[in-house]
Amino acid sequence: MPIESAALAKELALLCKGRAMLHPVLRERLGPQARAAFGIEDADQPPAVRSKVRSCVRRLLHDEELQKAALAALALLPRADQGLLKDRETAFARMRSFEARTARRRMRRAIRELVDALAEEHHGRSAPGVRCDDDGIVVRTFHARMRLDAAQPRLYERRTVEVTVDRLDRIAVRLTVPQPEPDAAESDVEICGGFGGEVGELRRTSPVDFEWTLRLPRTLRLGDTHEYGVDFTIPPGRRMRPHYVFQPLVPCERFELEVRFDPARLPEHVWLIDGLMLRALDHQQAQPERLVPDGRGAVQRTFTNLRQGMVYGVRWAPAAS
Question: Which of 242, 259, 262, 282 is deepest in the core (most CB within 10 A)?
Fold first, then answer.
């Protein structure tokens, strides 16, 4: 079963409101998305179900605080395993020396991150190999240029693709603009130019995800190559997380990236992101390679042998105020 983040989040929110993993008919209490995401089998008894869920939390959430918050929300954390969510929030707050509302926010955030990690992992298990017939293309070269030296951040993306199906007349295009903080307003983005096809209606598929269809000028055949580009801006007043990363969902041979900062306000540090899982982006354990902006305020990097589902790019510490 395909994992849909919104449906899985709804199921887990409903589960946590009650007795969570303490429910006497636990397997039936879990919805179909949760059963598929956690790998629950029909023959699994409640102890086995709880063990699988606990293992998923510990494996997928790298940050120990997030692990504990998620386990508390699910009634799987010792001393915070009460039958009512309100009691678990109070117990978790007492354990961590938080206010109750802080504990509530952290537990909700942990469940959101768990949902994202489960959906990402499931996509990785079901992703195609060398070819990607669902999308009909492989990416030979992807060039991205992010301009942060103007009033509005602007992104230029160019792709050269090869067709892997008999006939192709449109290409699905996707973009994620993460919120700067979990409680921030919904992200937004505008298409401001491009070439190589007619851009269809921009659709928001989640608070941070966008997709649209690029209608090609002619029907392409198996083995044909095509180049197209799309330009984006983030509207005034909107902020973005301090990173730009590319997560290939179809095979990609080469990714060329340039991020240009304002030379008068260079970031304190710029770090390379080279093949991380998306959920580890904000919790990177190993010391990443640092990049130094050139005289124009730009950093550049070329990536090859990209792995589907991993992320590549840069993140930075903004200049001090």
Answer: 259
